[in-house]
């Protein structure tokens, strides 16, 4: 709905726009994406009630309405900005974590290769595959968590926690198992 301004409020018209409308003309149905109904004059009782309101009150009401719309737009813009920043931070941490995990997993694989050099090949691969799967699951889970406003910081910690666990396994294997 919108008001088409005239010379005075009494001369103004009210126009109604209908979207996704189905019009019937006799037996025929016409579908339109957008159509405007015939402009209607503003009732005289509404004109008289509005004319009794002081201009300062009308201006204040208009300012409050515009301020509310502006505040809502600002709120949506802040949320969109925050979402974009969280996505960027999540992508940066994900890529860094995948890069760093290669070093930690290579060291673990080399140490396990030395420890399990005489055992069956598939056993060694299975033992080395579990930490890799754990790191990937933690990175992907952390990335999803870090995109949400409530779990952003926790998500970044989850991304890196898998690598910390593998680094601790590196230290354990290198200090305890390789001494033998």
Overview of this protein structure:
This protein is an alpha+beta fold. It has 2 domains: 1-52, no CATH class; 84-177, no CATH class. Helix content is 68%, strand content 14%. It contains 4 helices and 5 strands, in the order E-E-E-E-E-H-H-H-H. The strands form 2 sheets. Strands 1-2-5 form a 3-stranded antiparallel sheet, with no helix packed on it. The protein has a two-stranded antiparallel ribbon with strand order 3-4. The radius of gyration is 34 Å and the shape is elongated. The termini are far apart. The model has no long low-confidence stretch (mean pLDDT 84).
Task: Give the quaternary arrangement of the chains.
Answer: single chain
- The structure class reads alpha+beta
Main sheet attributes: strand count, strand direction, barrel closure: 3 strands, antiparallel
Number of helices: 4
The run of helices and strands is: EEEEEHHHH
What's the shape? elongated
Measured distance between first and last alpha carbons:
84 Å
Let me know the number of strands: 5
Unreliable segments of 5+ consecutive residues: none
Q: How would you write the strand order of the largest sheet?
A: 1-2-5
Estimate the mean pLDDT confidence: 84
Round the Cα radius of gyration to an integer and report it.
Answer: 34 Å
Percentage of β-strand residues: 5-15%
Number of domains: 2
The helix content, as a percent range, equals 55-70%
């Amino acid at each position: 709905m919108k008001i088409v301004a005239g010379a005075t409020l009494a001369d103004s018209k009210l126009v109604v726009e209908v979207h996704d409308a189905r019009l019937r003309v006799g037996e025929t149905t016409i579908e339109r994406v957008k159509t405007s109904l015939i402009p209607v004059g503003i009732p005289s009782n509404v004109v008289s009630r509005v004319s009794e309101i002081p201009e300062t009150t009308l201006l204040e009401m208009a300012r409050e309405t515009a301020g509310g719309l502006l505040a809502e737009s600002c709120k949506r813009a802040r949320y969109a900005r925050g979402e974009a920043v969280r996505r960027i931070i999540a992508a940066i941490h994900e890529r860094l974590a995948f890069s760093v995990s290669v070093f930690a997993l290579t060291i673990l694989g080399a140490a396990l290769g030395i420890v399990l050099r005489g055992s069956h090949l598939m056993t060694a691969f299975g033992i080395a595959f579990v930490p890799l799967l754990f790191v990937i699951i933690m990175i992907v889970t952390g990335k999803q968590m870090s995109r949400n406003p409530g779990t952003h910081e926790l998500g970044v910690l989850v991304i890196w926690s898998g690598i910390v666990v593998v680094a601790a396994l590196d230290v354990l294997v290198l200090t305890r198992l390789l001494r033998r």
